[in-house]
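Marked as duplicate of an earlier ticket. Keeping the data here for the record.
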Amino acid sequence: MTFMDHDISHPDQIGALTSPELQLIYETAPIGLALLSKDCRYLLINRHMTEICGISVAGHIGKFVRETVPALAEQVENIVQTILRTGQPIVGIEVNGQLSAKQNAERFWTTNWHPLKGPQGNIIGISVSAEEITQRKRVEAALRELNETLERRIEEEVQERIQIWNVCQELLVICDLEGKFLKVNPAWTATLGWHEAELIGRSSQWMIHPDDRQLAIIETENLAAGRSLRRLGLRFRDRNGSYRWLSWRAVPHQGRIYAMARDETEQKHAEDRLREARQELERVSRQTTIGAMTASIAHELNQPLTAIVGYGNVGLQRLSRTDPNLDEVQKALQRIVDSGLRAADIITSIRRMFRNDVHEKLLVDVNDLVREVLTLIHGDLERRQVILRTELHDSLPRISGERVPLLQVLLNLIMNAAEAMSAVTGRERQLRIKTVLDEAAGVQVTVEDTGCGIEAAHLDRIFDAFFTTKSHGMGLGLSICRSIVEAHGGKLCASRRSPFGTAFHLTLPSAETIHVGDAAGAKTGSPTFGGNDERS
């Protein structure tokens, strides 16, 4: 487009700028466009530019900037004067809406100002473009607020993690893949006495118990290979030279090993003390059982011994006669032999019960076990005025088990039943022992009494260690019984009898349901009432 050589400064010169092509550009441009004279009059303007102040296109032409946007006039005049002086454009000037009622004050435009030069190179006007950036400003503001929020949250989380790192009682450590310490938390000092400066850059090998070092090396190599460590107990030396048990968990991540350890030294000691206490209680429990059996054994032995003395006296009397009856003497001697064998059987049963026995699983007849226990406690049952009824199945399959522990289970169940009826009056103290074939599970032994019974609320707890309903009990007998039975693949449970009493149900798998060859001679180490070291 060609302009006049002299400056464009009067309204009658505007016609030279109103060619159809230029008008089309102004009308279709997606941004605001305007042409200012050197004295800041509007020569041309399109609709988009008028949105800044809300005045129509016609209302701008020939008007000074001070008449349309007085709040921006000084800034516009300074920009125009700067361009006239330097001949250089000015870009990136941001303005907001200028409606008199401030309805568009939250709208923003970025403006660019370029000199318009005539054929002689002199500046004859200022071309202004304006692009609305309201949405961009809002997005930028939202992003800025989001960034500030994220920065604040990150800072808060960093501070929280620092505090957790500092106050955590577990030992925290970050290592490289060779196990060298890169960072530790203060718990190392609190637990082991070592300061951070003594640990950083070193591996933990010098602190680990010699017996645990190889295991630690293997697990460190596994971590370096990308495998996590779920739990590992190691002994670490503290500054005083003693060792503490630490339970470790660790994961590898991006060339680092992140690990934590919990001091379980006191827990280990407590477990050791509890194990020792339980062993002692088991030993006491067994001795208590033996003590309770002593009267029964004495009574049982007293019967054949008394018979031996009686038959001996009879034989002596018959021999002292002038004409002794040798047949009667022979009968007396035979009865002495029979009574002696009866006493020997009792002693043999006692020795089998309490001898040192290897934990071998052998083929066992459950009925024989029941009879053997009843032989031992027959006298005690008579003393307690207990009526014994047995229903032993004739064709039971044999089971594979440890004889001595199973004898202990039956003895405990039967003695418990007898004791449960000690306070019963007004009805029979009846002890019923029954063996049946359970085709699904194997062999079942039921021991029933007519005592006061066990409260329903206690049925699920009587097998818990240290729970007892007896005033003098320790709560270990039934717990050990269940452990023994479960070690044999069986089950032990209890139920209430109607109208009174309790029934204990012992179920053991028959030898046909397991591999007898594998079971025979296998060391199972079933729990016993006296512990492995206490049997004699």
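See parent ticket for discussion. The domain at 280-519 is CATH 3.30.565.10 (Heat Shock Protein 90).
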